[in-house]
Amino acid sequence: MSSLKFVLSASASQRVHDILSCLSKFSEYVCLEARRNRFTLSALNSTKSAYGGISLSSGEFFESYSFEAIGSNESTEPPRFTCRLYSKALLAAFRQRYSDSKGSSAIDRCEVSFEDDPSRPECRILVQLVCGHGVLKTYKLTYEEVEVMAPVFDKGQAPNRWTVQARLMKEYMEHFGPKAEGLDITSNNGRAVFTSFTEKVTDGKEILKLPMHTSIALDTSGFDDWLAEDKVNVAISLKDMKAIIMHAASLNTTISTFYSEAGRPFQVTYDHEGMRCQFTLMTMTQVSNSQTFAAITRVNNRPAPGPTPLHTPGPAPRSSAPLFRAGASQRDSTQSQQAIQGDYEESYRPQTQPVQTQFQVNTLTQRILPHQSSPQAISQVPPSQHVPQGLFLPYDTEDEDSDDDDLGKGLEEWEPRLRWDSGCNDNAMPSILVVRDQIAPGIRVDEREDEKESEEEEEEEDMGPMVGPTQQVSQARGLFDF
Amino acid sequence: MNCPPTFIAETTSIRQILSLLRCIGFLSKVQVQINSDGLTFMVEDSRVMQGNVFVDKKLFTQYVFNGLSNDRPLPNPEGLGNDHPADDDNGDSEKGVSFGISLSALLECLQIFGAETATRERWNQPALSSTMATRPAALGTEQERKSGKCTLIYQGEGYPLQVVLEEDNLSTSCTLTTYEPDDVEEFLLDQPLTKKIIMKADWLYDAIQELDGSSPDRLIISASPRHPFFSLSSTGPMGSTSVEFSNERSLLETFQVPTPVQNIYKFHLIKHAARAMAIATKVSIRGDSRGILSLQFMITINKVMSFVDFRYLPFQDDSDNDD
């Protein structure tokens, strides 16, 4: 049995609101973890490709804080209590209150307590807002006791890093439209280059709806620190990044990022008055059959000797990452197609074959670390243990199952281009998706000589509307080739 | 019917009337009753909630009502007094006319001026005062208010309600079909009251907003002569929420609760009153022994006091309300 009780000032409870509204953009659940010296709110998105964790220091952030764990063996591990709630429920308690406008809802202080008492069946967190004039608002929120997952990020393995004022970064982000999905970050001749891109298609029959890339190149003098290797490209979710920056900017703080290369995690951290915020985002992998990319870069019709796609055994994780290669080439392609070819050919997987698109393990999911979820734990992990593509192992809890429930949403958002072929599991290609219409009609004949032709043929017929076709290369060529 | 019409009234305060009517704008059909004191608009939702707006004739520059010309028998003679209970003592002096009308259509008509002025004021006021600093803001809004004129004409039973809106040299005429009046029986509060609480409407609005966060189904209103004096609470799938008000003079202007009392109401019906809560200055919360709840809002616009009244039947836990 453990009990937790803390008191927040009015401004701190507003901070909690800001934290929650940021975390709620990642997941519909918020996980709480209480320890003696800190209280952590965290969220892991349904595809496990983005994690946000904000630790509140017990001494600095709270007016008072006490966490007692009775009966736990302190010698083996520090006592902790973890649970999870609907972020909506917590946000209702810590909602935005414009105390100035009416004066009626001014909060004096906020008292939060919960007891993990096995003798009482119900799990409730008690949030009491003591307001002026003797108004008392009480929330009893249902929580669910779960183990909390957190990614392990080794900063030692992340040589690329930069630091910038969040406010400045927010201004930069304003260049990117609301519908852009990805953000590519690279350093080019000492300039910081941010590119937004999207791979969204409305439905199979239409061409790319927003084939627009917005790129901004910035002098690194605006950054407090810019230590990013030239030509290293990473692409992350723009929506996630925006959510982080919005929050950081509201604190008027400075963000630091750490990353190594595409396919490896990307971390953003910032601190503010007893808050320690860490966000770990998975970057998109390089194996690219991206239609956007293909359409644009299909200048020479020659299939390049691209890297063999990785085959992940079992059903591929429905990852968040559109397969995406070099942002530099993407960006440049609109301006100079010449420049990109070299770059492109290295990684370009020929479009002219029946394409086997598969996702890499693009989640932060590779390791079980139930008790190393603290930020401190992160650096303790020997680098050798790192698995290139992820940081978590799918944790074996119900957690996992329920997360799957909302997978559809994330998937819809991210991958309207690809649908799962339910028939796939029956044949020899469990993890292979076949993208239809990817073959330009003109080149189909000669290119389709290669393996699995008949197989593909069948599948194409079977699947029909199942697989969201992307644009035809021929169509795209008409668009871009003049 | 021959002229003169049963009712003709002219006003330049459409905006005020519109704000009042918007308080009950959550339903599309309204019962209108006209008598010599003013117009009463009444809506009923699910037979468990009633919203009542009284538009005083003070809000009209010209107000003519020839009530007795109407020779049709009124189906429910008490209905008159009901709609405007304050007039109970002299309510018989004059019979009113009543009809049903589409509220959404009426609001839309009145918005031709009203909404525009309202948005203009809300959004462009700072801009106006900065760019057109020569013109005092107060005068400006006053002029805007005066600029539109609205005339309501009702010939009598079976005739449509005519709304004529005039601005400068432009005249817009709207003709709204009237319907047979519904036989709506007003929920009357029994004496003695089990609770009577007067407080700032803001407080109630804030509390309802607070509870709304968990999107509850039911609202529990408890009042007690001891602590906790007055509380609103709700239970939802994600937990429970309660807002308690202590009996402080600054908080509860009037607090008359002889014995502890607790009633349950449908939350979404209470939320219908949110618009009124937001614009009202004070609210009077009354309840009787049967659990009927009255929320009466005092809305002061341009120094004219108006009242919007909501009545609720309690939610019965054992025998489900068939709404």
UniProtKB/TrEMBL annotation, chain A:
Entries under InterPro entries matching the protein:
DNA_clamp_sf, Rad9/Ddc1
Q: Which GO terms describe its biological process?
A: cellular response to ionizing radiation; DNA repair; DNA replication checkpoint signaling; mitotic intra-S DNA damage checkpoint signaling
Q: Which SUPFAM superfamilies match?
A: DNA clamp
Composition bias, Acidic residues = 448-463
Listed Polar residues bias regions: 330-340
Region (Disordered), start-end ranges: 299-352, 440-482
Q: Please give the GO cellular component terms listed in this UniProt entry.
A: checkpoint clamp complex
Biased-composition ranges, Pro residues, are 304-316
What's the protein name? DNA repair protein rad9
Q: Organism, per UniProt?
A: Morchella conica CCBAS932
TrEMBL record, chain B:
InterPro entries, sorted:
Cell_cycle_checkpoint_Rad1, DNA_clamp_sf, Rad1_Rec1_Rad17
Q: What is its main location?
A: nucleus
* Ranges for region Disordered: 71-94
Q: Which UniProt keywords apply?
A: DNA damage, DNA repair, Nucleus
- GO terms for CC? checkpoint clamp complex
Gene3D superfamilies, A to Z: 3.70.10.10
**Pfam families in the cross-refs:** Rad1
Q: Which domain of life is it from?
A: Eukaryota
GO biological process terms held by the UniProt record: DNA damage checkpoint signaling; DNA repair
Family from the record: Belongs to the rad1 family.
Q: What is this protein called?
A: Repair protein Rad1/Rec1/Rad17
- Tell me the organism's taxonomic lineage: Eukaryota, Fungi, Dikarya, Ascomycota, Pezizomycotina
